[in-house]
Amino acid sequence: xxxxxxxxxxxxxxxxxxxxxxxxxxxxxxxxxxxxxxxxxxxxxxxxxxxxxxxxxxxxxxxxxxxxxxxxxxxxxxxxxxxxxxxxxxxxxxxxxxxxxxxxxxxxxxxxxxxxxxxxxxxxxxxxxxxxxxxxxxxxxxxxxxxxxxxxxxxxxxxxxxxxxxxxxxxxxxxxxxxxxxxxxxxxxxxxxxxxxxxxxxxxxxxxxxxxxxxxxxxxxxxxxxxxxxxxxxxxxxxxxxxxxxxxxxxxxxxxxxxxxxxxxxxxxxxxxxxxxxxxxxxxxxxxxxxxxxxxxxxxxxxxxxxxxxxxxxxxxxxxxxxxxxxxxxxxxxxxxxxxxxxxxxxxxxxxxxxxxxxxxxxxxxxxxxxxxxxxxxxxxxxxxxxxxxxxxxxxxxxxxxxxxxxxxxxxxxxxxxxxxxxxxxxxxxxxxxxxxxxxxxxxxxxxxxxxxxxxxxxxxxxxxxxxxxxxxxxxxxxxxxxxxxxxxxxxxxxxxxxxxxxxxxxxxxxxxxxxxxxxxxxxxxxxxxxxxxxxxxxxxxxxxxxxxxxxxxxxxxxxxxxxxxxxxxxxxxxxxxxxxxxxxxxxxxxxxxxx
Length: 596
Known about the structure:
Layout lengths: L2 H20 L1 H4 L3 H6 L6 H12 L2 H14 L3 H4 L8 H16 L4 H9 L3 H37 L9 H48 L6 E7 L5 E7 H4 L22 H18 L3 H8 L4 H15 L1 H15 L10 H7 L5 H37 L5 H23 L5 H12 L1 H12 L5 H21 L6 H21 L6 H11 L6 H4 L4 H37 L2 H21 L9
Antiparallel strand pairs: 1-2
Helix pairs in contact: 1-10, 1-17, 4-10, 4-14, 4-17, 5-9, 5-15, 7-12, 7-14, 7-25, 8-9, 9-10, 9-16, 9-17, 9-18, 9-19, 9-21, 10-15, 10-17, 10-18, 12-20, 13-17, 15-16, 15-25, 17-18, 19-22, 20-21, 20-22, 21-22, 25-26
């Protein structure tokens, strides 16, 4: 980059730190303020922050790599996590259920579900530990991609035997950590809103660039091989731009992407994973935003605007892939398509785009770290170590936990070299080990805190062991089956062989959240009018979920098809998406409640 580009990046970094530090006084008023903004943050700001948090450098690099290498079909692979299809479930019912709980963290939610006794304490502790482990894994993932991206431009040398990518990641994370540690969720949200302006500016510019390009009828793409090399393969624009999924792909068996050759099976498992995850609810920074809003209506509007803003990510992804294809053999490693495209930009624009992508990286990082620190402070330190901790001690541990999580994530970065590998492991192995207990806690009233805890432990330990012993080339759905099966067995046996949660706790939980599932005897304790209203709401929500999932998929595919300039496909997708939008208005939006 030139001096002008570096100046733009520097001004951006200075501004973002200034915004974060400006709200630090407000955030330091107390733990509720630090982690939830006292539940006074506007839903539109939380939605904008959520979009920024989902649009990270690392995720953008791996999704752009898949779209570049596999064309539109790469979209279906990223149903595993990159499409963020869990938002459809948060939109319809899961978001409002969590808002109704009144909790601050997922682990604190366990107290509402399993009670104040031993099983509630155990569930809360295990939920906190597992969430911190997942947070460290996500920080590692962000650091790997952010370091890989920034290293292309900064030219940092190797120091102390550590690779330049490590130092580039450390620089990016250190800057984000300044305002994250100082300002909590206030800083996270308002800096994310500020960063969203940069992000959308980069999207608009890259979309303009891509629309000037017409790809040839045939071209070559580069794929990573198992031996660490890269090789070019020929394809056609018709095949590359087709949104129609296939049961099988014909990728060379020596390529790392050949694990997706059983395409139909892979996508089926990705959809199964999304349904389980969406129906069971998310955790960490996404869930934190639903704890921070006031009522069902705000939870719904938060989700809706979040999805609409997030759809523009697929404009950006499509643009990067198109420009990457136009560069021909300049692309070797697909995971470097994004920085290679940025390298081609003119002076000034390059600096602005790098700043925008740094904004995307830091917005995801700051949310994740803030949520991870909450688990340590609220669910471990304050409960099990120092129940009488004063304000100063709680805030000190909030700062310290944030810093420690970052350091552990940076150290773990040295173990992983491939972004797709760690993303696949996080989404389909370690994350899948938490899916079944997270699902059963809502719908199976008999499930207790011990069953939840044993299920989580069984799934996560299986994921960690599997990562250590499994050979290269193991499919993601194999990882999914091992982790989810272990957690299912652990959750069911752990529940059936221990005493159930007391009815008073379960009745209070049902009265607050009103989920569907095996809660019939608790629902019958309510008056007839309440029972009728709950039944009607549950039926609407189930129906609307079947509409919301294809609505989000067609919306995102439509946005990407605009960059491919496949106009007939775009028209069909727009008609389908528009029809589904009208149905959702009547089946879901009109019924959102403002009761707190």
